[in-house]
Amino acid sequence: MPISLLDTKHWWRHQNLRTLNLLMLIPLLSIFSQGFDGSMMNGLQSVTHWQTYFGTPKGAVLGVFNAAYPLGGIAGVFLISPVADGLGRRIGLATGAALCCIGAALQGGSINIAMFVISRVIIGAGSVIVSGVGAPYITEIAHPAQRSTATALFLTFYSVGSIVAGWCTFGTFRIDGTASWRIPSALQGLPSVIQLLFIWFCPESPRWLVSKGRNEEALAFLVKYHGEGDLQDPVVQFEYNEIQRTLSAEKSTAHSLISFLRELATGPGNRRRLFIMIWAAICSQMSGNAFVSYYLSPILTSVGLTSDLQQTLINATSQMLSWVSAIYFATLPGKLGRRTLFLGSLCFMWVIVICITAGSAMFAKDHSNKAAAYTVVVFLYLFSPAYNFGFNGNLGLYIPEILPYHIRTKGLSLFYFTQFCFMILSNFTVPIGLENIQWRFYIIFVFWIIVEFVGVYLLFPETKGPSLEEIAYIFDGPGSKIGSNPRSELKGNIQFVEDTNCDGK
């Protein structure tokens, strides 16, 4: 890719590029609801009025409360591709946001367990749609020199949602009445309201426009936002020609669900993509993160921290640390590489889970051992930064970019389907395990993270460097459907395209 004539390092100096980057805040809010949900449920378990109103749910009942959200997500994944590919990225995002608004209104007004659970199913469906549309949308409209950072920032808004929910429950738990849990429950729809109001000011994806034969509109987008009005900008010309040729080559591919599944099972490149999507989804949910995301309250109770004040304060402050780390780590994929971040994150989480297990075991033997209790709290704080290192922004970047345009939203639907299936498994089994075998339940994750590490080490290729279209060359080789025939050099067992400048390299 040619070097841009724009000063992308100081992007705020260019009016149109500045406008584009500010407008990207709207799709960046797409993951907010997921982060809000986990932190809110953590906080509500520490709110006495919520516990009393719903009969102090524990074990399997508590698992149903939390599993309702990913259950809705499984239903929502089947709408991602039809609305995003058929109607456009903007309408797809608006559809999911509307569902989130409806679900949040029902959740805030719940009068019984059934209504609360159903509202969470609706929120889960809407959240997975906005997430499944928002990630490729950002990937497709961001300037090539900023794509890795912009897409990696996507999942950092999970932590923003967590912070808002954490401090909201901390601020409302003192209210004497059901408003103590109804207020944070209804506020989960706030980002979706913002998206519904402002998504219409955002430009449509140029790749979607080309796929619908609206080439002039796509070129106008690239000229305005990536070339600052210069039709002859080399990046604009390169992007436009490559998008045209690539999507033209992909048009012969059938777009039905059956053909998509058949295509994923055909050829070593697609089979590798399939394994990566499934394995990444498993790693993102089964590395022990459910402890911190949904069951912080029972863990803190198990080490002697039982008051509403202690638990809601720890929940809120830990989310702030998570967000700060997520923002910084979102800048690393373009510097350290995607694969390095995945492997490093798994190593960090493995060490932290071991320390949480050891501290919990020591406190179980001696309840007066405050040092062991505080050790558990410290490593609970550190778990989110360790997870964010590889499975926050980096994961949000990696999955969309390994998928060619014609299967991008369908592939993300499959990824989210797998992710939400394992979220259900994790959310349902963790409270049962904590109730029955206490700290011994953590040992499972000590061994499982090793298995995850081996899978990532063996089959996740590095994608740092090539353009969005040229990444197909890493998986499919010279036969890939990209709009150019770049020379390549072999580095280890991974092919990289020469003369690319996507990350400023």
Automatic annotation (TrEMBL):
One of its GO terms (cellular component) is membrane. Residues 23-464 form the Major facilitator superfamily (MFS) profile domain. It is found in: Membrane. The chain crosses the membrane at residues 20-40, 60-79, 117-138, 150-173, 274-296, 316-334, 341-365, 371-391, 412-433, 439-460. GO terms for molecular function: carbohydrate:proton symporter activity. This is General substrate transporter. It is a multi-pass membrane protein. Its main location: membrane. It comes from the Eukaryota. Keywords: Membrane, Transmembrane, Transmembrane helix, Transport. NCBIfam families: SP. InterPro entries: MFS_dom, MFS_sugar_transport-like, MFS_Sugar_Transporters, MFS_trans_sf, Sugar/inositol_transpt, Sugar_transporter_CS. Belongs to the major facilitator superfamily. Sugar transporter (TC 2.A.1.1) family.
